Amino acid sequence: MKITQVETIYLRQSQVKTQCDSGQDILIVRISTDAGITGIGEVDSSPMAAKGAIEGPFSHTTTAGLRELILGEDPLETECLWHKMYRQNIYSGRRGIAIHAMSGIDMALWDIKGKALGQPIWKLLGGGFHKSGIRAYASSLFGATPSETNARARRFRDQGFTAVKFGWDPMGRDETTDIALVREARQGVGGNADLMIDAGLVWDAKTALQRARAFADYRIFWLEEPLAPDNYEGYRRLCESTDTRIAAGEEESERCSFLELMDKGKIDIVQIDLARCGGFTEAMKIASLAQDRGLPVVNHGFTSYINVAAALHFLNAIPNSFITEFVSEESTTLRDVITRQRIAASEGVVPIPMEPGLGIDLNEEALEKYAVRL
Ligand SMILES: [Mg+2]
Q1: What distance in angstroms lies between residue 202's CA and the mean position of ligand 1's atoms?
Q2: CA distance 355 to 249
Q3: Is the sign of the CA dihedral 78, 84, 87, 92 positive or negative?
Q4: 353, 290, 268, 276 alpha-carbon torsion, rounded to 10°
Q5: CA 362, CA 139: separation in Å to the nearest integer?
Q6: Which residues, 6 or more positions from 360, have their beta carbon under 8 angstroms from its beta carbon?
Q7: Residues 6 or more apart from 294 whose CB is under 8 A from it?
Q8: Nearest to 334 by CA among 66, 5, 12
Q9: Cα(210)–Cα(188) distance, rounded to whole angstroms?
Q10: How many whole angstroms from 184 Cα to the centroid of ligand 1?
């Protein structure tokens, strides 16, 4: 089998709000083969920059467009192709956008592999740890006020979720607001649910420690990204000073960045986004490094059902997974229309995809409607 075409499709909602919701526009990678099998993947990044990394020309042996590197190659050779793309972008792509772009390509290649072999990706990765489904946490931005956050939390509880996460603005405005947001979130989800708080990179280490202590009254399960991602020393001081679990990783791409967070930052929970970290091929290595350090892994995903499905395959293939992020942000409409499948949680549990490949098909009419013409 040979790769015959690599396309990028950029989709965008008519209204994109100034908020931390990365599902408002989406870059899809579609790879075709001479066997008639097509695979899809997703990139969660700056879409046009990632598109350029894929479609750009060959510049020299250490900077080359990714499409050109894989055309004509065997899509089943996922490890070889990952290394070819990495090595030939060593100037321009060891972290960030080129790795993001490679994530979408790698995801599509695994989709092709699954379809070619008639197996779900999790099985090809050797998995089966959560065959009956995996517990999901509803993931949402905070309401504009503490009381709006309370109302959202109640809705998620009524939907059957037993774990809920709130994140980003207005967390970080001031101590009173920060504590009120967490208090109302806890009140809304009830006493038994697990509550996660995503601070959204807002504090220094000492402020984060003060908040972790204050939030302890509301029994949070983890505190996510309280510090800037490169503040490894701050993460280390924080993690060594609190018994609240500290989670991070969604800003990272490629395993060396995760090693910094784990070994220097001493984080407690490793968050991996399949559409950003380097795809399945790299995510499995990061999960293994985390497992060696006794750390649980969770996915990060705030985009389409392509990435949700990818995360489910991945989490089902590693021993150190226990819960999945399930985006429940209500203002995003794109994810509900661009794929034929809509993955849903029932009583707070999401089923594992059983179809060959990712188990996700694009909705061509929606692509037509939302594609940005360039
Ligand atoms: Mg986050």
Answers
A1: 12
A2: 29
A3: negative
A4: -60
A5: 24
A6: 40, 111, 305, 306, 309, 339, 340, 341, 353
A7: none
A8: 12
A9: 23
A10: 19
Ligand 1: centre distance to CA 302 (Å): 9
The first and second tokens of residue 321, run together, are 């997974």
Q: Which domains does the chain have, with CATH numbers?
A: 3-118+364-370 (3.30.390.10), 124-350 (3.20.20.120)
Between the CA of 224 and the centroid of ligand 1 the distance, in Å, is: 6
Q: How does pLDDT run along the chain (374 residues), one tens digit per residue?
A: 999 999 999 999 877 877 667 778 999 999 999 999 999 999 999 999 999 999 999 999 999 999 999 999 999 999 999 999 999 999 999 999 999 999 999 999 999 999 999 999 999 999 999 999 999 999 999 999 999 999 999 999 999 999 999 999 999 999 999 999 999 999 999 999 999 999 999 999 999 999 999 999 999 999 999 999 999 999 999 999 999 999 999 999 999 999 999 999 999 999 999 999 999 999 999 999 999 999 999 999 878 999 999 999 999 999 999 999 998 876 667 888 999 999 999 999 999 999 999 999 999 999 999 999 87
DSSP structure string for 225-271: --S-TT-HHHHHHHHHH-SSEEEE-TT--SHHHHHIIIIIS--SEEE
The number of helix segments (H) and strand segments (E) in the chain equals 13, 14
CA 167 – ligand 1 centroid, Å: 7
Expressed in angstroms and rounded, the spacing between residue 141 Cα and the centre of ligand 1 is 10
**What backbone phi and psi angles, to 5 degrees, belong to 295?**
-105, 135
b/e sequence 309-339, b meaning 16+ C-beta within 10 Å:
bbbbbbbbbbebbebbbbbbbeebebbebbb
Instruction: Show Cβ contacts of residue 210 under 8 Å, excluding neighbours closer than 6 positions.
Output: 175
- The vertex-61 CA angle with 59 and 65, nearest 5°, equals 50
Please give the C-alpha separations between residue 159 and each of 148, 204, 220, 252, in angstroms, as whole numbers.
17, 35, 20, 32
CA distance 177 to 173: 7
| Residue 226 CA to ligand 1 centre (angstroms) | 10
Q: Is 126 left (phi over 0), alpha (psi -120 to 50) or beta?
A: left
